[in-house]
Design brief:
The structure is a single chain. Strand 2 and strand 3 form a beta hairpin. This protein starts with 14 loop residues before the first strand and ends with a helix. The chain is elongated. It has 2 domains: 59 residues, no CATH class; 48 residues. By secondary structure, the chain is an alpha+beta fold. It has a 3-stranded antiparallel sheet, with helices on one face. The chain has 4 helices and 3 strands. The longest helix is centred in the middle third of the chain and has 21 residues.
């Protein structure tokens, strides 16, 4: 993949499908799916409920991505309008840099 190409994910919405388990009774495997395509598999191998919580977080990724982009645009507008941020030389370091780093990790190109 070209380093200039943005990584693309499977389009949303993503949902969580608990898989019944005959041995334990409760589901311990959770599939994150988009239509008929599997996106991720999470298992409850740690504390009870952790696999399901992880699957729900993963399934929310497409919506969170859209909200993130909207929030970034709003933050830029607010920062431009408020003089206190314009005069704060650490604003970009405290707010912008960590957010951009998180976005870069999410969009990492392999």
């Amino acid at each position: 993949m070209n380093s200039e190409t943005k990584a693309k994910h499977t389009p949303g919405p993503w949902t969580v499908k608990p898989i019944p388990n005959d041995v334990f009774g409760e589901p311990v495997e959770f599939h994150v799916i988009a239509g008929d395509m599997y996106v991720a598999l999470c298992c409850d191998l740690g504390p009870p409920g952790q696999g399901y919580a992880n699957a729900r977080l993963i399934a929310s990724a497409p919506e969170l991505e859209a909200q993130r982009d909207e929030l970034l645009a709003v933050c830029k507008m607010v920062a431009a309008d408020l003089e206190c941020y314009a005069e704060d030389p650490e604003y970009e370091t405290r707010i912008g840099d960590p957010l951009r780093a998180a976005i870069a990790r999410a969009e990492r190109k392999e």
